[in-house]
Amino acid sequence: MTWLQLLYYVFLTGLGLVMVYPLIWLLFASFKPNAEIFGSIDLFPKEVVWDSFRKGWEGSGQYTFGTFFLNTFILVIPTVVFTVASSLLVAYGFARFTFPLKKLFFALMISTLFLPAAVTMIPRFMLFGQLGWLNSYYPFIVPALCGGGPFFIFLLIQFLRGLPKELDESAQMDGGHSFTILIRILLPLSKAALFSAGIFQFIWTWNDFFGQLIYINSVKKFTISLALRMSLDVAASVEWNRILAMALAAMMPSVLLYFFAQKYFVEGIATTGLKG
C-alpha cells in the first residue's frame, strides 16, 4: 500500500465518521437525562438512563409505539409494492411500444415532475375528501396503484431502454406475448432499477410527515412520524431521551433495508442489469 492510498483511506474514514457522528450522538443521547442533553457536549453520558427505550415504546397515551410502527408498515408496504409494480407497467409501455400521441403523453408525464407539491395539495385534499378517503391510508395507496410516480416511471424507462430489444424479439419468436416478455425476461433483468425505486419510495413514505399530517387525524391511525411529533405535545415536560430513543428506532427499518438491498443494487448496476 502506497502513502497515497493510505491517505486516501484515512480521508474516507474521517469523512465517514463525520457523516455517522449524528447517529452516534443520537444513540448515546437516548441514554442521557435532559440536563446532560442540553448542558453538555460530551458524547458519553455521565448519568445513564436505562429505561428510555422501554418508556418511550410505552408512549404517553393509550397506544404504544408498537401500534404506530404497525400503522406505518400498513401504509408503507402496499405503497411501495404498488408504486414499483405500476411504474414498471407504465415504463414498459413507453420503452417498448409505439402508440399514437406517445411523445405527448410522455411529455405530460415528465411535466408533472415540475409541479410543486403545494400546487396539487389542495385539489388532492378536496378530491380525497369527496371520495371519503380522509383519515385513511387510501390517499397514499391508491395513487401508487394508478401509475406510481413520474420519477420512478422515468427511471424505469431509462433502464428498460438500455436492455437489448433482441431479447424481446427472441421471446416473440418462441411464442411469448408482451406480458410474458415483461414478467419472465425484463422483470428479472430490471432488479437493480426496481430495488432503487423501492428503496427511494420506502424511505420517502416512511419519513413523510406533512402528507400524513394532512390526511390522517385519528391517533389510532397515526404513523411513526406523527407519533413522534405527538409525543412533544402530550406532556408539559418532555423527556427527550425517550423521544430520541424512538427516533432512533424509527430510523432502523430504512437503514436495515438499505444494507440488505445494497448488495442487489450494486450488483445490478455493475452488470447493467444483464447476467451472463
From TrEMBL:
<protein>
    <submittedName>
        <fullName>Sugar ABC transporter permease</fullName>
    </submittedName>
</protein>
<dbReference type="InterPro" id="IPR000515">
    <property type="entry name" value="MetI-like"/>
</dbReference>
<dbReference type="GO" id="GO:0055085">
    <property type="term" value="P:transmembrane transport"/>
</dbReference>
<keyword id="KW-0812">Transmembrane</keyword>
<keyword id="KW-0813">Transport</keyword>
<keyword id="KW-1133">Transmembrane helix</keyword>
<feature type="transmembrane region" description="Helical">
    <location>
        <begin position="68"/>
        <end position="92"/>
    </location>
</feature>
<dbReference type="GO" id="GO:0005886">
    <property type="term" value="C:plasma membrane"/>
</dbReference>
<comment type="similarity">
    <text>Belongs to the binding-protein-dependent transport system permease family.</text>
</comment>
<keyword id="KW-0472">Membrane</keyword>
<dbReference type="InterPro" id="IPR035906">
    <property type="entry name" value="MetI-like_sf"/>
</dbReference>
<feature type="domain" description="ABC transmembrane type-1">
    <location>
        <begin position="69"/>
        <end position="261"/>
    </location>
</feature>
<dbReference type="Pfam" id="PF00528">
    <property type="entry name" value="BPD_transp_1"/>
</dbReference>
<feature type="transmembrane region" description="Helical">
    <location>
        <begin position="240"/>
        <end position="261"/>
    </location>
</feature>
<feature type="transmembrane region" description="Helical">
    <location>
        <begin position="104"/>
        <end position="125"/>
    </location>
</feature>
<keyword id="KW-1003">Cell membrane</keyword>
<feature type="transmembrane region" description="Helical">
    <location>
        <begin position="7"/>
        <end position="28"/>
    </location>
</feature>
<feature type="transmembrane region" description="Helical">
    <location>
        <begin position="181"/>
        <end position="203"/>
    </location>
</feature>
<feature type="transmembrane region" description="Helical">
    <location>
        <begin position="137"/>
        <end position="160"/>
    </location>
</feature>
